[in-house]
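User: Fold this; tokens only.

Assistant: Input:
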Amino acid sequence: MTRVRSVVEKVAEVCGSFLVEREEHVKMLVLAVIAGGHVLVEGIPGVAKTLTAKSAAKAMGLKFSRIQMTPDLLPADIVGSKVFDQKSGDFKVLLGPIHANIVLVDEVNRASPRTQSALLEAMQERQVTIEGDLFTLPNPFTVLATMNPIEVEGVFPLPEAQLDRFLMRLPMGSLSREGMKKLLKSDIEAIEEGLRNLKPVVSMEEILEARKELREVWVDDSLIDYVIRISENLNSHRAVRFGLSPRGAAMLLLLSRALALSDGRRYVIPDDVKLASMYVIPHRIVIKPELVSNGPMRKESLVRDVLSKTEVPRP
């Protein structure tokens, strides 16, 4: 068993004892932390986005913080600021909530563009600037930004530059009929108690060791060519204005490696790339305006169309 698979299974098992139908989401969140990427979580209110994030962080023994985005939130409210200490007669630094291992940025599109930009340096450089001084963020560091897809008023669309910094987009939909029945039959207090009593099942050292394992995964040249063909076919699609950037292609291969390890393999297969594509590509696509005006186009369907028309490497 690979170290990545061991970490994923331990966290998913302990969280699955009180979370309903969120095993796949927990798995992808853990893989994002191991890979050092950020996650854009899309879902309507009330589908346990915060609960899932807090549970995964607690099971991994990582420091967790939550930022509720509002239009009047300032960058200093996120990164921190310097305040004057009357006792010492000097300025001291008060670190903001961004200084944690897992940062849940709730309703990221409700913050102003100025405040959203404060996340860019943190997400890309793993550091923040507080009045001219640089502060390195903890390692591991992952931003989980939630976004309500049905909100259209009082929100600021995320720029493409910021969307491209997210390793994956993780849709979190409603429960199935069986899952809803299980949730309604359970005690809500028992779920909250499950979170309170949750103990770490892996250490930070295990997570960092699992991250090193990503470099040991074998990727054949034919699969690298496969990723390039997917990128080329997507970018030349008649409906696509902007497709997969070089950073997006690199993240696609990174997540493919992580998925291979979570399946107990030390080599990537085409199915890993196909599955990773559904998480990595859709939020990066910009549809041509003239096609958007004709009606909504599902980006997931577009990705499936490109995958179906891209030649798969043969062994």
